[in-house]
Design brief:
Length: 212
Amino acid sequence: MKDIFSCANCGNQACRSASSDIYPNFCLTRKLSREKTESITQKVKKSPKLKKIALVSAEIEGQFYGKFCRVEETIEFIRRIGAKKVGIATCMGLIAETKLLGKIFEKNGIEFYAVCCKVGAVDKSEIGVPNENKLNRGAGHESMCNPVMQAELLNEQGVDINIIMGLCVGHDMLFSMHSKAPVTTLIVKDRVLCHNPVGALYTSNTIYSRFK
């Protein structure tokens, strides 16, 4: 199979400053037509929603890069975007962290509404999960994670943005697919690495060498 190169293969990062003289041959920026680039730029410029998110994101990056932690950046984003109500889609295993985030939001005058992943208490067997794939191996009721329900309930609340707090891989996709509001992630689920998945990449030459 012929190798297909992408940005992951680039060592130049010439697109940071439009240095076209050092674009590698496979560079996506180099291959993009002027028409394609302009159409996407115009799409952002002509959409008030997209433009505001893009501008506020750039403001926060430019003013607080390396100064604010992710929680502080999120609070600043909420303020600058003018969000009146924030939704939180939380893993039940991270309720303590969600409660703490809620206290921080309250202190900063941010209205929020949280929905946990087990909402509805629907047994996993209802969607065809066999007993051997349950944590309790079928020893009684085991509620499934219900990200679609989380999204629907937060949609009903009329939230302006949603924050994911540790939803499982895949469940976060289902939530994002059904959320009417823009979605950002504050915590990425990784039970082994204290919710710090990049740790596996940083230790890929040592304890996680099996990845390579």
